[in-house]
Design brief:
This protein is α+β, with helices and mostly antiparallel strands. The protein has two domains: 4-218, no CATH class; 229-355, PgpA-like (YutG-like), CATH 1.10.3760. The chain has helices at residues 47-58, 129-149, 154-157, 192-213, 220-226, 231-240, 248-262, 266-283, 299-312, 314-326, 336-355; strands spanning 4-8, 11-24, 32-42, 64-69, 73-79, 82-90, 93-96, 102-105, 115-126, 166-171. Strands 1, 2, 3, 4, 5, 6, 9 and 10 form an eight-stranded mixed β-sheet that branches. Helix 8 (266-283) packs antiparallel against helix 11 (336-355). One of its GO terms (molecular function) is phosphatidylglycerophosphatase activity. It comes from Methanobrevibacter thaueri. One of its GO terms (biological process) is lipid metabolic process.
């Protein structure tokens, strides 16, 4: 079935003159609906405002379901009888932090910023209400798993999809007369095992495409922010163990510059990310053979030494021991793997600055 897509500056209408059987969580919907139009409209997310805008869109003709959204930015992916519409509302921008580093930010601030990635899924088959519900649950689960596998920074996860929407659409059986008992008609046989794979793959691709479309990528500064670590905090750690005779005000800017430079080193980045991922797995007890409280576990020291050595060479590995043992500033509050990793980062940067 070829769908009609009607685009206005205030909304988008997905039209099927032969009607959809729809299951959705839309603002204006009964859950299961037989409708001609699926409307995505710019409106406040409440029933009256959304319905009013949808009625204008439909000129009071044709049955519809409607969903309010802040943005009409969307794209479609089609795979034979499966079409996925992905709608995107995003408040995040990627800004230059230095010549070599970028960071995710929002003019709204992260407390009010949102990223909502929503889907309308159309399957060109006769699918029962029970089947639509099953597909809705499958798509929702696939979406959650795909986003979890992206391992996005925590502060990005916290603003992701707190107001997204989803609809699953199928075709309506042809009947004689105007009435249709959706519970007593013949539907297509659906291979849900095969469909599960197709929808999971399609949802995953649509999410990857959405992040690419929005130009949302995340780097080391974003992951530092997600751990509550700021550049200023790292500078303070580096200065804290310097002798009083050393000229700290002059060293402060040099140390900050060195930290930022080191955070553009792909080997340092890889080691820091390895530390962050390892910390999450160990703290959640995901690796059966490893007890994070085991005194013989010293791979965190190895990571810290490797980072220090990558930045400042052999001298920095000796400096690492001092920062690791005394744990100044924020290092004291970091969990076991991260405190060594960032002790290594600071030890390497301080050694490099003092050497220069």
């Amino acid at each position: 079935m070829k769908l009609n897509i009607i685009e206005k500056d205030y909304g988008i209408c997905i039209n099927n003159p032969n009607h959809f059987l729809a299951f959705s969580d839309f603002t204006v919907s009964d859950g299961i609906d037989i409708v001609e139009n699926v409307n995505i409209v710019k409106a406040k997310d409440d029933f009256k405002a959304t319905a009013k805008k949808a009625e204008i869109f439909n000129h009071l003709k044709g049955s519809y379901i409607a969903q309010a959204t802040e943005s009409l930015d969307y794209f479609t992916n089609t795979y034979d009888d499966l079409t996925i519409f992905t709608f995107m509302a995003n408040d995040i921008v990627i800004e230059d932090f230095t010549d070599g580093l970028k960071v995710a930010n929002s003019p709204k601030g992260f407390s009010d910023a949102r990223i909502n990635l929503s889907h309308v899924i159309y399957i060109d088959k006769l699918i029962s209400p029970k089947g639509l519900l099953k597909i809705f649950k499958l798509a929702t689960s696939s979406k959650a798993k795909a986003l979890a596998n992206m391992a996005l920074p925590l502060h990005i996860q916290h603003i992701l999809n707190d107001n997204d929407f989803m609809a699953v659409l199928g075709n309506v059986p042809e009947t004689e007369g105007d009435s249709l008992d959706i519970n007593n008609v013949e539907y297509d046989d659906i291979d849900f095992d095969e469909l599960r794979i197709r929808i999971s793959d399609a949802i995953e691709i649509s999410l990857e495409d959405a992040f690419e479309h929005l130009k949302l990528t995340f780097g080391i500064l974003d992951y530092l922010v997600s751990e509550g670590i700021l550049i200023g905090d790292l500078v303070e750690v580096g200065l804290e163990l310097l002798d009083d005779g050393e000229q700290k005000p002059q060293l402060e800017e040099k140390l900050k510059a060195q930290i930022l430079k080191s955070l553009t080193d792909i080997n340092v980045i890889a080691l820091l990310v390895a530390a962050m991922r390892t910390e999450k797995d160990l703290s959640a007890h995901r690796i059966r053979e490893i007890d994070s409280s085991d005194k013989s576990l010293n791979s965190d020291d190895v990571l810290g030494i490797a980072i220090a050595n990558q930045i400042g060479g052999t001298k920095a590995t000796f400096n690492f021991k001092k920062y690791d043992e005394l744990k100044p500033g924020i290092i004291y509050g970091l969990p076991p793997v991260l405190d060594d990793a960032f002790a290594g980062l600071i030890a390497g940067c301080v050694s490099r600055v003092l050497e220069d």
